[in-house]
Amino acid sequence: MRKIANNRVYPIIDLFAGPGGLGEGFAYLKRKNQPVFKTEASFERDPYAHQTLLLRHFFRTFDPDSPSADYYRYLSGEIEHAKLAELYPEQWSEARSSALQISLGAETHDNVEKIIKKKLRGRKKWVLVGGPPCQAYSLVGRSRRAHDPEFEQDEKHFLYKEYLKIIIDHRPPVFVMENVKGLLSAKVDGKPVLQKILGDLAKPKAAVGRKDNGLSYRLYSLSEKGEFQEEADPSSFIVKAEEYGVPQARHRMFILGVRSDLNIEPEILEKETAPSVENVIGTLPKIRSGISKGTDTAERWQNLIKKTVEKAWFKKLGASNDDFALITKEKLNGHTIFPESRSSAVYKKPKKMRSWFEDEHLSVLTGHESRSHMESDIERYLFASTFSLANEISPKLADFPKQILPLHKNVEEGRAGKMFSDRFRVQLPGRVSTTVTSHISKDGHYFIHYDPAQCRSLTVREAARLQTFPDNYHFEGPRTSQYHQVGNAVPPYLAAKIAEIVEDILAGMEDE
Fold first, then answer.
1. I want to staple 207 with a disulfide (CB 3.0 to 4.6 A). Which of 117, 200, 272, 361 is the partner?
2. Domain boundaries, the chain
3. What is the pLDDT of residues 439-496, one digit of tens each?
4. pTM of the complete model
5. Counting Cβ atoms within 10 Å, is residue 381 exposed (0-12), middle (13-18) or buried (19+)?
6. CATH code for 10-275+490-508?
7. Are 247 and 255 in contact (CB under 8 A)?
């Protein structure tokens, strides 16, 4: 990638922005300590994700070297949200003008067109980013709605056409469209969805029935060199985040479009070794899970752990597996100091990627609060985390003692390896995590912490770190919504790498 001597700030228009992962990555990129990109408009319809987005846009109105002290007071709970708006009316006004709670669709299209035109102010060098909601294309989503007659008519199949209309209206020189890898196999009316989307992105006007005026795009992968050809394998659009420094095995589609009149071929992402789960979340304060039924006290929780370790089935596992016995002795013996609190605001920096995560102005940790679990699930988490440390793999249902198997009708199928055999999944300390999805907002079974002495699922902050959100990034709304926001986001660290490629393209254009 060539070095770029450029003091220009390029506009970003961010569609279906969520909590702002893509925009955050682009905002991180700087040259000569000056930002390369600025998000002029982010569109998001979910009220809680929009609140998160709004707060982050407010944060970015300040110089990174001298941020608002009151922002950190808000994070620590010293002042209310409304106080920030009262103290900084100009900054809040600016944030509200760029973080927009608007649902993209036919009803809002004309208004959105006017907003984008006003934000761009005639500038020709800019980037369109984002992707339509992906639940309808996800493998899990499709399996859950396999027998739903309305599934193929779900609006989420067609929201990408709003993306196309915006491309037609404003002719961005470059766009980045993100979506789930389930697009590779998704079909509507028996026809592959991805082939249609690729054809539509290449010639957007024809896709929405408008007269062709020559507007077209060359499509590129971010992981393989060269323009995508119609006969090529579309799996080349898959980006494996763990290959580019993200501590998570997150495989998503990224389609990079370059307007055909521009004689520029983009670079591809540079590979980078990702840190492990432990390197990213291992320093965070130890906390315990809650107990969902009855009185939730530290004493009751600790007694539950100790009694489980003394049960016959648990001891039998140690007797037949020396490593299991060793982990039990090291992590769960009588001298173990179990955590008493379910949350902690003590700010601890990670072992790796410190310059990315840390903020010298930050004194509190937000989002590090555990969920409550049933006693039976706590026993399962205790077994699963101990098993995973002893065997360096997460257990399948076939590995679980029968005494703690859940009472689900498909458990035997799971034990036979037919379906949901990894219903309980531990995030192994020495590896990158599995994909952090929106399902983390449900029950946490797929996101069990590796430490048996904590015996819980991951917190919002831990999930955010695996998604590479900086530690000063605060998520608004109820905890369930916060999990959902984190799980649906693009990792900002990956987005920052994509931003370098986009910058290179824009700098290669003729000056306006």
1. 200
2. 10-275+490-508, 277-477
3. 898 888 999 999 999 999 999 999 999 999 999 999 999 999 999 999 999 999 999 9
4. 0.93
5. buried
6. 3.40.50.150
7. no
